[in-house]
Amino acid sequence: MTPGIRPLIAGNWKMNGTLREAAALAEGIRAGLDRSPDADLLICPPFIHLHVAAAAMGWKPVAIGAQDCHPKASGAHTGDVSAAMLADAGVAYVILGHSERRADHGETDALVQQKAAAVIAAGMVPVVCVGETEAQRDAGEAESVVSAQIAGSLPPDFAIAKGVVAYEPVWAIGTGRTPTEADIASMHDRMRAEVAARFPGLGEGTRLLYGGSVKPSNAVAILGLPNVDGALVGGASLKAEDFLAIAAAVPAP
Ligand code: PEP
Q: What class does CATH assign to 8-239?
């Protein structure tokens, strides 16, 4: 953790479940929250499940997030959803530049930056994902790839809007594999230095999440690392008890 930064545990539900299952998952998280965790909590259902998940969550202090948005405010963009529409629906955070979107939809750093600017303009918080492929890590390029993604994907008002950066090595997503603790710590140190240099006086407070096969059994070790200010959780966020166990693994301040 980073002293003075409140951690964030975010669940990325991806393209999973039915309306009924989304409601049940949110309900399960709500019911299992018997004490306030030492972290902010966030769930990011598919667009079409945002409303039922929010309704099932009720008054509990779990924020609702989306998994993408269009950079434009409105117009002829069939199939897309704007940041303003998400804000209007009660969304507080938007995941952007996830490696699955970069791979499936050819999203570039420049596009992610435009989307992040739109999210901020709509009054929400962007969660910008960065991370190297396995080939890039094997070639010794992990740090330079992540640095370039940070430089290219964060808009100028990112830190003032309390934007979040998630380090998600592509090869660790959904595979059960994770980098060593030393590799996570060294990447997060580097990310901290970069956001601090880019946003003087503010980047020191930017939340840096780790994502990639986080589960209850490795959460204590990962969340205890310096400059790891929470987690972006995919598969394990689809089970209420696992998501809550990860939240409970956040070290006390
Ligand atoms: C993710 O896709 O954001 C992710 C971290 O997935 P998983 O936890 O399943 O590796």
A: alpha beta
